[in-house]
Amino acid sequence: MPLFILGSIVAGLSFYSKETPKKRKAFQTNQPSIYILDRSKELVPANPLTEDEARRLYFYILNHNIPMTMHDKVFFFGMIYHIMINIRRTSFWFGLFGIIALIIQIAATQHTNMIAATTVFIIWLIYALNVRYNKADRKMQENYQDQIFWLEMNIEIVDSLIRKRRKQQ
Fold it and tell me: Residue 11 to residues 22, 63, 124: CA-CA distances in angstroms?
């Protein structure tokens, strides 16, 4: 049991440090900051914002202009997305290591423990359900579309902040 806990902590810290959910296509497409970047290219083609500047401006808008209910929704669904992707990845690797451990146990003892086999089965079931009913990616995209819609409906705010940012540099 202590080895399992240690493995869980190492896996969790590894996922945290690598930020694997942010590398997924569902996370990277339709980013509201890309909308701001594209808008800056239209407004100031000679000197558009960089990706980092657009991301910082997006978070400024999110924290200062977007209504609190939408702000809370953005952070809530972002957190849920990260949790679901980490559950998917963790269950995959624990399931894979579980199968390897079962094979080693069978090779060494010519039998397996039913509790161990059931645990590996449950881990793979969690993985399969998470992949099959992939609401996390869909909800993340809906969340992004809502934010982009807000930016489009409040284009005057976006444009004025882009211009103000450009004047400051």
Answer: 17, 32, 17
Q: Rounded to the nearest 10 degrees, how much is the dihedral formed by the CA atoms of 59, 61, 63, 67?
A: -140
> What number of residues does the chain have?
169
| CA angle, residues 68, 32, 141, in degrees to nearest 5 | 90
Contact 102, 116 (CB under 8 A): yes
**Whole-structure pTM value:** 0.69
Tokens of 140: 């993340």
Residue with tokens 């401006």: 57
**Positive or negative CA dihedral for 66, 67, 72, 74?**
negative
* 38 C-beta neighbours (distance < 10 Å), count: 13
The token pair at 49 is 């914002």
Handedness of CA 150, 155, 161, 162 (dihedral sign): positive
What are the Cα distances from residue 12, in Å, to 65, 98, 109, 111? 34, 17, 31, 31
pLDDT in tens, 78-133: 888 878 888 888 888 888 888 888 888 888 888 878 888 888 899 899 999 888 87
Token reading at 63: 């924290």
Cβ-contact 125, 7 below 8 angstroms? no
